[in-house]
Amino acid sequence: MDDAGDPFMTSSRDPDVVVIGAGPAGATAACTLGGRGHRVLLVDRASFPRAKVCGCCLASSGQDILRSLGLGDLVDDGVPLETTVVHGAGRSTTLPFPGSVTLSRERLDPALIDAARRRGVEFLPRTRAIVTDRDEVELRPLDATTGVPADHLRPKAIVVADGLGGRALDDRPEFHWRIAGRNRFGVGTVVKDVRDAPRRGELLMLTDRAGYLGVATLEDGRVDLAAALHPERTRIGGGPAATCARILREAGLPGLAAAAVTAKWRGTPSLTRTRRRVAAGRVCCIGDAGGYAEPFTGEGMSWGMEAGVAVAPFVEAAIDDGDAHAWNRAHARLLSARRRRCRTVAFAIRHPRAAMPVMRLLGRIPRIGRRLAGIASGQSRPAADAGALG
Question: Model's pTM, two decimal places?
Answer without folding.
Answer: 0.87
